[in-house]
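Page 47, continued from p. 46.
Same chain as before, 262 aa.
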Amino acid sequence: MHQGHIARKRFGQNFLTDKAVIYQIISAIAPKPGENIVEIGPGLGALTVPLQAACGHLQVVEIDRDLIARLKETWSPAQITINEGDALKFDFGSLPAPLRVVGNLPYNISTPLLFHLASFSGHVQDMTFMLQKEVVDRMVAEPDSAEYGRLSVMLQYRFNMVSLFDVPPTAFKPAPKVTSAIVSMQPKAASECACRDEALFAKVVTAAFGQRRKTLRNTLRDYVSDADFVALEINPQARGETLSLQDYVHIADYLAGRKALV
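Result:
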């Protein structure tokens, strides 16, 4: 319990209370007056207070009715616009662009939420999130590492990402069982995200990492023949985690080109 509010497990609530960590996060975001900042899951306002003070007007997305009531008591509509509902279903494209998105993301929905947010990358200036360190490590992972996987490839396609610093469990109430980390995400220019068929690219990446121990010949058998591997100059005995983002774009573009010829 904290400030009269009981953290709800189903919403993945852990409230940030360490003032030094809060200052460090706000310094990393560097909010400025007039910027279009949206905070996902403001909770009890640890980041909300300094963010609103810096930018003047803040958008927030919150699902917990008790916390929404508390926000309405604390802030005027001129200070904060409260978007009530689930961030997983929220249309971030409905907010003024370019958006700066920040938040201590609920760990239980972090991966689907990151994929949801990625679909609005053209509407976004940058995103700064606190997540489970394990998730951040996967987001920024290099090929041929244990952490590298579908999340790494799909997010690195759209964003340049940097893990900024770790946050210990003691910075929260209740303390989570895991260490957290702050990640900065900058959308890439549209010219950098130039895969010919992004839906096909996503399918290939998903298939390649579907069974990590299997070779690409097995995981991609529905898409790539032995002759295709030769044409692509990719070893069919390799595993999905050995290929770079550029390799996956190359495969998808090759398959899209072949499809266009049929």
